[in-house]
Design brief:
alpha/beta, Rossmann fold, 7-stranded mixed β-sheet, two-stranded antiparallel ribbon, 9 helices, globular
């Protein structure tokens, strides 16, 4: 196991990444949803709708939404009748989610501060595990995947929505220009935080490409793994089953 992990384009000690990522999301929590709309032109809503359709939540089943923060995925799952536990390592993100849930009159969600690498849940507690735009910020991705596998029941399913690197000619260059030049400027203009959004752009580039990440999911013990590419791989939906 390497003594360092990536924080954007830097290689840092694992505990340093955990600290810095925590600071990033504490900084951006209040404007996180506004920035998502600005950065994606609102398309993140369509990606999340598509993601939840792939999960196919059923009434009464237990779903852990890891890195669920402000509740975007959890609200969609709960609307379909699932019993959702929203977990996030960052309390500020959870606080925003709780407030948003109260505004919507959603009272059935469970909110819990959790480290994806060392969950407090018992083995085989959940029917599904979801994580959207969060896995690349985990310090040890392999440990998080192992924990996802552990807390799922046999027959349980893992779904991950994450940014990646598009391979579409022409669009790839535009995407790189946008993420490295414009995204930090948007962060400065809207959230008064250029550096956090520079990290988020860099973290996408350092994240494993879709097929490499699919192999990591398989290595964690999941079967029937699948990756669905959106915009040539700029966004990907990964899935696997615990059998």
């Amino acid at each position: 196991m390497s003594d360092t992990v990536s924080f954007g384009y830097e290689d840092v000690a694992p505990e340093e990444k955990t600290r810095r990522v925590g600071a990033v999301f504490s900084n951006v929590a209040a404007k996180y949803d506004i920035m998502n709309d600005a950065m994606s032109g609102g398309m993140h809503r369509l990606w999340k709708d598509r993601f939840v359709r792939r999960v196919k939540p059923q009434p009464g089943e237990a779903i852990l939404d890891m890195a669920g923060g402000t509740g975007d995925i959890a609200f969609r799952l709960a609307e379909r009748g699932a019993d959702v536990t929203v977990a996030d390592i960052n309390q500020e993100m959870l606080d925003v989610g709780v407030e948003r849930a109260m505004e919507r009159g959603l009272t059935g969600l469970v909110w819990s501060q959790q480290n994806a690498e060392a969950l407090d849940y018992i083995d085989q507690q959940f029917d599904a595990y979801t994580i959207a735009f969060g896995i690349r910020n985990v310090t040890r991705i392999d440990l998080a995947l192992a924990e996802a596998h552990r807390v799922l029941r046999h027959g349980g399913r893992f779904f991950c929505l994450e940014f990646s690197t598009t391979e579409w000619p022409g669009f790839k260059e535009l995407y790189d220009l946008y993420s490295h030049r414009l995204m930090p400027k948007l962060g400065k203009a809207i959230a008064d935080d250029e550096e956090s959004y520079r990290y988020l752009a860099e973290s996408i580039r350092r994240f494993p490409k879709p097929r490499a990440f699919e192999a990591m999911i398989s290595d964690a013990g999941f079967a029937n793994t699948r990756v669905e590419l959106i915009l040539g791989g700029a966004v990907a939906i990964h899935s696997g089953w615990k059998i």
